[in-house]
Amino acid sequence: MNRRHTLKLLAATAVAGIAGRGIAHAEDEPAFTLPPLGYAYDALEPSIDTTTMRIHHDNHHAAYVANLNKLAGRWPRLAQRPIEATLADLDGVPAELRTAVRNNLGGHWNHSFFWELMTPGGARTPSEEVAAAIRGAAGGLVELKAAVKAAGLGQFGSGWVWLALGRDGKLAVFATANQDTPLARGAKPILAIDVWEHAYYLKYQSRRADYIDAWWNTLNWDKVAANLRKASA
Ligand code: MN3
């Protein structure tokens, strides 16, 4: 391709881009929006560093949201149902979009849940209600942390570790791959830790265990208590 041809192509792309944005603003808001982090990027220092938080929220989470808006253009029902309902019924998603919806809607839901879990200012230790639930599920907090760490280190590649209330009414620790959610198996999440490398690599490099240990310092136990009450209701 010669230079003149390239410039013509760029000009055409620019015009199409501007027209596209104009139409989107005039006729409708995006179906999905990136929720604000709700606190400063440096609020979880030194456990989670500022740059990681900025890239994780503004780039990684934002990319899932951008992809969802494209998917909603192809399948409007995506924007019309509650997110949880779609994630609990992935078989109801058109087959050709199912993997993309699973990854991007899962990524959007998981991260939205994760940011709130780390909101600074809440309880630094479990309430008696939460502690009792943890004793019943794992034996105690020390044992819960050990189970979460084992699941996190055992997750090959990217994924999440969850404490979730299962269909059987019992709390369990397990990992999911990629952006898969407990909702897909009918479980209700209580807490979650993102063990994708993008969540820790800038500060911890390959030391996933050190990241998991430090992550507990960021946990807002008031959010855990609220999630437990909601799941048990
Ligand atoms: Mn992530």
Give the helices and strands, then pairings.
Elements: H1 3-27, H2 50-74, H3 77-80, H4 83-87, H5 95-117, H6 128-138, H7 141-154, E1 159-165, E2 171-177, E3 188-194, H8 201-204, H9 208-215, H10 221-232
The structure holds manganese (III) ion.
Manganese (III) ion binds next to helix 2.
Describe the structure.
The chain has two domains: 50-117, Orthogonal Bundle (Helix Hairpins), CATH 1.10.287.990; 128-232, minor pseudopilin epsh fold. 56% of the residues lie in helices and 9% in strands. It has ten helices and three strands; from the N terminus they run αααααααβββααα. The protein has a three-stranded antiparallel β-sheet with strand order 2-1-3. β1 and β2 (171-177) form a beta hairpin. α6 (128-138) packs across α7. The structure holds manganese (III) ion.
